[in-house]
Amino acid sequence: MDFPINTILLKTILEDTPAFMGIYNISTHRYVFINKVGLSMLETTDLDDFTAKYPRGFRKDKLNLETQSKIYQHLKENQTWIEDTLFETSNHLEFWGTLQISMFESEDTQYYLVRINDISYQKKAEQQLKDDNNRFEALFMHSAIGLIMVDREGVIILSNRFANVMFGYEQGELEGKQLEILIPQNIREKHRETYTNYTNKPQSRPMGIGLDLKARKKDGTLFPVEISLSHFKSGDKPYYISFINDATFKKKAETDLLIKTTEIQKLNNSLEKEVVNRTNALVETLKNLEQSKKELEVALNKEKDLGELKSRFVAMASHEFRTPLTAILSAASLIEKYTKSEDQEKRERHTQRIMNAVGNLTDILEEFLSVGKLEEGKVNAKLANFELPKLVEESTNDLKNMLKKNQQIAYQHFGETIVCLDKSLFRKIIINLGSNAIKFSNENSVINISTEKLDNMLILKVSDQGVGISEDDQKHLFDRFFRGANVTNIQGTGLGLHIVARYAELLNGKVFVESTLNRGTTFSIKFAL
Fold first, then answer.
1. Which helix (H) or strand (E) holds 300?
2. What average pLDDT does the segment 113-118 reach?
3. C-alpha span between 487 and 34 (Å, rounded)
4. Cα–Cα distance between 317 and 319 in angstroms, integer?
5. Per-residue DSSP letters for 457-491?
6. Which of the given ranges, 51-65, 140-154, 311-325, has the highest pLDDT on average?
């Protein structure tokens, strides 16, 4: 320093003080000393560093000449200037400090002794308190619901504006009064008991728990309210807060809603009855329509089936009847020409042709009659025990007259020989399947027939080495008048397999087919005994 002050005193008072301490030359407007605490507070290393970083001081609000003159005049008269002000470091960090200035003179030079205590924490606490008060003001006083705070004795400590307006009191008029003035006269005694119980065991109670509560205004008017309760402690003192909502409009709305709901319910009941009646009538009409639709569909399907059957019958009959009739006509014409005795052999040959043709016509008519009886439900199974191998052998003997050149029928049986079935229907099944196998197989081929008796089942198999049946044709194999695409040049009505399937059904049996084109076909029928 360049002025005479006792260095020990300087060390003690300035350096060891835990605050900013500086000596300011009033005439040069410069600090001539700043202690280490002050230099650290302003983030500087020494006095020169401070002078370079703070050429105009470190107050947030820079002092003009008028304010400086005012401070100087005040110090001359009162010795000390004290104020709280905001400071700013060279890095623009702000802090609050209590500025204390004293003026002294040394060797005809005037100085300020400047002390700054950092009060940022205190200011922050004050601001926090102020903010808390503002928040309390916003939340409590300006809340859009009535709030009343009471102590343990039931004395009103605070009420917000909404509550005051709700109960008809001026601001502050409720404070210091007993909470009972807001309770209807007839339930005050009960309220005291309830309040005592609540203060002994306080707990938060949400609004809208189904209580029908009323409150009393300043003029004595009662009105419905909804109340929610909460509690807290400040120190050792408990306080209780009531959140109060005027339920007048809500109750009115509930009443109106109840009336409207009742009216709507009555109307709904009436409408429901009408709807039920109309629905029942509609359902009945729909049922009748549905029944009529089904009947029409059945009739239409029958008509379509009949038309289809007629078409198939005409196509089949025109072909199947023409062939034997042509043969009969031709043979008869030729017989007339053979009048001599030596032509007897020729006459017999043509007579045989006529007999075969008549036999074919008889078979065709027999198939037609069988289908008709099946459709009309006139065919019934007559079960009886018989010797199965014997029946099959008799049937195969009948088939031998149909065999082509060098064709053979091989038959095998496995298991017990006695079965209980309709003997006539079973024979017709064998004849149909066997005749088909002969018809659709080439010369020099073998027709294999086998039967097997198991515990509760009889299995009949008829296999040939003929033309086979395509997969597409197998889907329609048992339809009436259906004939495979690869056998249209072979005589047949397309009824045989349909009759077989129906006879098998009457005997509790089911037909299965395995076939490969040009390699043969196997028909299997499994009868449940």
1. helix 248-320
2. 92
3. 128
4. 5
5. EEEEEEE--SS---HHHHTTTTSTT---TT-TTS-
6. 51-65
Q: Which two tokens stand for residue 165?
A: 């307006």
Dihedral of CA 317/320/326/332: which sign? Answer: negative
* Count of beta carbons in the 10 Å neighbourhood of residue 322: 10
Mean pLDDT of 267-278: 83
Q: Give the chain's mean pLDDT.
A: 83
Nearest to 175, CA basis, from 151, 207, 194: 151
H, E, C per residue of 188-249:
HHHHHHHHHHHHHCCCCECCCCCCCEEEECCCCCEEEEEEEEEEEEECCEEEEEEEEEECHH
Q: Distance between CA 467 and CA 472 in Å, rounded?
A: 15
DSSP H helical ranges for 96-187: 120-136, 161-167
Which DSSP state fits 342?
Answer: G
Average pLDDT over residues 293-301: 80
